[in-house]
Q: What sequence folds into this?
């Protein structure tokens, strides 16, 4: 694709969203909303990846895909960076589950931080849904 958007770009986004989803596996219930949003994000990116493998988007769609690819990469990188910042360092425990639960106890996001990421995810989901609808018409 001449604009520089391809199936590989959305595979990279899928890898990032999967990394983020894994961080929320044993999270306390107050993080269920963002965890569900990330699951939906993963599903729509997978759908777009499948659709892109079977069609050649037009110039306008390629530009839209490039924009949403960049926005999604930025969002997921910011989220992972934030998660890394609050991750417990040097945890020693007998099991992975205990390590994760211990780390989540120290995870101190404010409601505004969570809502900010959820808003950004929702915006990207809306854009991805629009693009998916356009691609599925071909």
A:
């Amino acid at each position: 694709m001449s604009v520089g958007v391809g199936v590989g770009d959305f595979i990279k986004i899928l890898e990032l969203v999967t990394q983020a989803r894994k961080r929320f596996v044993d999270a306390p219930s107050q993080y269920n909303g963002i965890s569900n949003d990330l699951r939906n994000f993963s599903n729509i990116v997978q759908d777009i990846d499948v659709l892109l493998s079977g069609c050649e988007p037009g110039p306008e769609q390629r530009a839209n895909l490039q924009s949403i690819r960049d926005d999604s990469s930025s969002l997921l990188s910011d989220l992972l960076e934030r998660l890394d910042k609050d991750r417990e360092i040097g945890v020693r425990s007998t099991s992975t589950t205990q390590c994760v639960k211990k780390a989540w106890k120290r995870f101190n996001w404010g409601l505004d931080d969570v809502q900010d990421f959820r808003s950004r995810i929702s915006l990207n989901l809306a854009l991805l849904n629009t693009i998916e609808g356009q691609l599925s018409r071909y």
